[in-house]
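$ fold --in a.seq
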Amino acid sequence: MKLIFAGTPVFAAQALTALLAAGHEVVLVLTQPDRPAGRGMNLQPSAVKQVAQAHGIEVFQPTSLRDADAQARVSAANAEVMVVAAYGLILPQAVLDLPRFGCLNIHASLLPRWRGAAPIQRAILAGDRETGVCIMQMEAGLDTGPVLFSEALTIEDDDTSASLHDRLADLGARLIVAAVSALPLAPRPQPEDGITYAAKIEKREAALDWRQPAEVLDRHIRAFNPFPGAVTSLSGQPVKVWRASRVPGQGEPGRILAVSKDGISVACGDGVLRLLELQKAGGKRVSAAQFATGSTVSVGTSFDLPLAS
């Protein structure tokens, strides 16, 4: 199949690699412009661009697909289908209509649940027991198009956004190869019931409120790992919490109940969280035992509670 691929991060790069390995001819890759990254803030190519360059594929990095020149560039590729995965630009109807088989999107949820930008994090935050990948025929609405292929997977009790991302990327790569190879496919309209929206993750959401139940805070920590990292404060100093587990107990929210080599146990609104991996501002991620050494952490002291909004 002669195709255009549009995507930017690692999730998309994995799908592009799978399509190339399956023997499909990728004639053009669309990806976001290079962004500054790293300590030197030098311009860095996206993960998708790196794969494209390694395979000698033409790369196009427009800031918009709404102008005639950009659309002409896409049209000139004369592709049979466009595959889109976490691209980051809106595709206008003129672009959606260009390929013979239209544009297929790899979406990391079981649509219509979690349409939008952050389906992986929102599924964990909500306590969903399963998620999956849908291969969707794109249309003008936000993730509203009919589904061509889908497959579910279980969200494990210890899944973080990072681990769930990796499993969904594997699944998405496999499903898009199967879908493209089977075109044309019968579209399946999304149900009208069960629609939810996965809003973009904001850093302000990362704060831990110890008045919430331990179960909710555990999901919060896992959902915000690796970005932006769940954050609390101790004596006014910010602390990121990267890993924790629930343990039996009760106490005043935020109060430290135990400090040991196994972790730092903190009372929540309901239950107790044992913190396992933490990070001080400007420091490295360390085990709770390392964090407690030489710090103000001790039984009876408390993590700060956020101000009521």
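$ fold --in b.seq
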Amino acid sequence: MSIVVVGSVAYDDVDTTHGNVVDALGGSASYFAVAARFFTPVSVVAVVGSDFKAEDRQRLAERGIDLRALEQKEGRTFHWHGRYHEDMNKRDTVSVELNVFDGFMPNLLADQRRCDYLFLANIAPSLQQRVLSQVSTPKLVAGDTMNLWINETRDDLIKLLSRLDILTLNDEEARMLSGESNLVKAGRAILAMGPRMLLVKRGEYGVLQFSKEGMFAVPAYPLEEVIDPTGAGDTFAGGMMGFLARSGRVSESSLRTAVVYGSVLASFVVEKFSLDRLFELTWDDIDKRYRAFIDLIDSHHARWITQ
């Protein structure tokens, strides 16, 4: 089944200890869509400027991503500049230029309004609510947020949470939203605010999943070298949602498998700048790492039982 993602398509300047890129394709919707497309059809709702390169549109289109609702307006595309520390869990935002993204009013096409799977990427809660008012009976709605919306539009965000099946956010944002320093307490507090499930992204430390059925922890896939962490969270969400849409089931078991697939996709994207690693990725690569990931987290308990 297909997914509709509403978010940003952007250009990024990224500085890391491994080098830098300028005007590299980025944005939450871009990372999400390329990752999810390995599993199922994806349709993007976003806006770009007149400077958006034809070759970047082509790269997305060649992956089979539906770009009919990628609006192009006069002006510059959303631009973000980030600089990572040696500890890549920490970064500084050097500059943010919203450009045509300022004033973005997402409008879904007629067939998108009938979607079964919807991902509301990191945009203002008021815009996320606007999208939800346009869809009819989605099977699953997931959404992302960030510290800006928690600090400045908290009331709008709280209203949104009861309409989400899955909320994704990072550990710092979970503590900020809940007011709890302990992540387990934070997870329980956020679940009480309305979402059916919560996924707390912890960078190189993996993901914590919370639901009424219990808690599930997955480590990050160990890598010798991380080149660029930009978009890892959106890539994780794309892999996770992509698997759920392909399976057609939303259960505790399928969600746990989806979290592993999301972690696998996220482990690839950080190996190069921008979306370069995802664009060269094959399903065989994903399957091989998925199997290695399962072997990594499987304790093989029966092997260690002594008589």
